[in-house]
Amino acid sequence: MSTPSSRTIATTAPARVVGEPIVLCRRFLRVLIFILLHVSLASARDLALVSNKSNAIGELTVPELVKLCKAQTQHWPDGKPVTFIMRSPDLPEMQMVLGKVYGMSGKELDSLIVTSRRERPAHPALLVAASDDELVDKVASTPGAIGVVDVYSINGSVAVLKIAGKLPLQPGYFLHGN
Prior knowledge:
Elements: H1 20-43, E1 47-52, E2 59-60, H2 62-69, E3 83-87, H3 95-102, H4 106-119, E4 126-129, H5 132-141, E5 145-150, E6 158-160, E7 162-163
Parallel strand pairs: 2-7, 3-4, 3-5
Antiparallel strand pairs: 1-5, 1-6
């Protein structure tokens, strides 16, 4: 008869399974791909064109949008001065707008902003907002204003405009990220 003190408990390291490094490598790659996809999706922001609710416009064509953004259209048909409000041209999410709408570099756009302020000091044609929330607030409080903002920052104080017949998040929307 054996006593509990005479028993030996064998402690062995877990046996390595053949192919275990491959399984670990696959898991690591899956996690890495998952993280990279989420990071790229987070940087691919969908933007929307929003308007002050008093503006009597629901849709713009792409050429009309370009003229408004470049301060080439000074007034709406009802006589209100046009103000285009955007985020800083240096931000990554604005690079798509720089390429698609402006076709110029950030420095060139900065120069255009300064020029627009000189031409209309009381009511500049182009303004830069520090945040999406500030942009929405400025558009909501400025008659004649429109702006480009992240779709998830939109609230009921502004109207969303169609561009070329499409709304944000619809396939083929002009300001769709990436």
